[in-house]
Design brief:
Blueprint (H helix, E strand, L loop, with lengths): L1 E6 L2 H15 L6 E6 L6 H10 L7 E2 L7 H19 L3 E5 L3 H12 L4 E4 L11 H12 L2 E4 L2 H9 L7 E3 L3 H13 L4 H4 L8 E4 L3 H4 L2 H13 L4 E4 L2 H9 L3 H6 L3 E4 L4 H9 L3 E4 L2 H10 L3 E3 L8 H4 L3 E3 L4 H12 L16 H8 L1
The structure holds uridine-diphosphate-N-acetylglucosamine.
Length: about 350
């Protein structure tokens, strides 16, 4: 079987790597082809993940770059259609919920190439999130839906997707985390930034709803100012540009407790999470990784499409009101936080189950 695997943006790479590894282990059965759309293109947003995750150079690089949603999605669709027409794969596998997932899923469905969606069924019920639109559309047009939780399966059933298409396979990101956690321990990132184990907060922020709104971003910056703890904050390019545009970057640079960093790779990110006192984030992936690592996580959003990280894991939804952020953070600093456990099938074998189904 010829299988095309699509990667486009940073949160895709750690989901694609275990699938790639699994498919290449069986050369008699599978011919995997790796496509990178180029939605993310900076070395620190893309290449470094290929190195950290031991992924080969993609067979096809579409180099689409940034743009409005319509522009980016259309560029990816045009580039990926050519690849599909040339390769005529038996399956197209798309992961997650970024614009590349949507564009490539739609291309394949229209060419009647079966689509497998890895991380199907997540719902935030918040249509102001571009990712929620991507998830809903891709799930509707997919032939095999690989769901990370029973709740995700239930969401799909309620939307009328036939039972035989839905498979509860577990969380593929955790395959990468379990494989590479020992290697992440060797990262020197704490020494480089002078951070001590359990004596800093690890922060990431990139959601449009948080960083594109000056009032929301100002509130978050004021909360950081009130925290009496070092904060390690690698800046996503979108976030750096908004902080700079709204005039907050200088204030942050002057704050003694905030260490602004360039974006970090996969191994450095794991090292920073594993050794943090707690994590503050608006990322979906970090909500899951902190639950897998047993590290407390405060999510700076009003909702999450990953409820098991709250019901079972170490995650708490905090929202973006500065007073609430400070109160929750101080409570963790004073030793009050949830201890979670691993959700079902977060066992490092999700890619194996997906490939077995294929
Ligand atoms: C995208 C995904 C989001 C995911 C996030 C992870 C969509 C709709 N959004 O959002 O779900 O959580 O990736 O990072 O697909 N830029 C660079 N270098 C890069 C990439 C981007 O400088 O390598 C800058 C560009 O100025 C660009 C901006 O970052 O305009 C935003 O990039 P974009 O890919 O549009 O969205 P993200 O915010 O990264």
């Amino acid at each position: 079987m010829k299988i095309i695997l699509v990667a486009g943006a940073r949160p895709n790479f750690m989901k694609v790597a275990p699938l790639w590894n699994q498919l290449t282990e069986m050369p008699d059965l599978f011919e995997p082809i790796l496509v990178h759309t180029g939605q993310h293109y900076d070395d620190l947003m893309s290449e470094i993940f290929f190195r950290d995750l031991n992924l080969p150079r993609p067979h096809y690089e579409l180099n689409v770059g940034s743009g409005s949603h319509a522009y980016q999605t259309a560029q990816i669709m045009m580039g990926f259609e050519e690849v599909l027409l040339l390769e005529r794969p038996d399956w197209a596998l798309v992961v997650g919920d970024v614009n590349s997932t949507l564009a490539c899923g739609m291309d394949a469905a229209k060419l009647q190439i079966p689509v497998g969606h890895v991380e199907a069924g997540l719902r935030s019920w918040d249509r102001s999130m571009p990712e929620e639109i991507n998830r809903r559309v891709v799930d509707t047009i997919s032939d095999l839906l690989f769901a990370p939780s029973m709740q995700a399966c239930e969401n799909l059933r309620r939307e009328g997707i036939e039972d035989h298409c839905i498979h509860f396979v577990g969380n593929v990101m955790i395959d990468s985390l379990m494989l590479l956690s020992p290697k992440a321990d060797e990262s020197r990132i704490l020494d480089i930034y002078g951070l001590s184990v359990r004596e800093y907060v690890f922060l990431t922020l990139h959601r449009v709803s948080n960083v594109d709104c000056p009032d929301t971003l100002a509130g978050i910056v004021s909360a950081l100012q009130a925290l009496r703890c070092p904060i390690a904050w690698p800046l996503h390019p979108r976030t750096r540009s908004r902080l700079s545009g709204f005039g907050f970057l200088h204030t942050l640079e002057m704050m003694g407790n905030v260490k602004l960093m360039d974006p970090v790779g996969y191994l450095d990110s794991l090292k920073l999470q594993k050794n943090a006192k707690f994590v503050m984030t608006d990322s979906g992936g970090l909500q899951e990784e902190t639950t897998a690592l047993g590290v407390p996580c405060l999510t700076l959003r009003e909702n999450t499409e990953r409820p098991e990280t709250i019901d079972i894991g170490t995650n708490t939804l905090v929202g973006v009101c500065p007073e609430r952020i400070v109160a929750e953070a101080e409570s963790v600093l004073n030793g009050h936080y949830k201890s979670g456990r691993l959700p079902e099938l977060w066992d490092g074998n999700t890619a194996e189950r997906i490939v077995a189904l294929l």
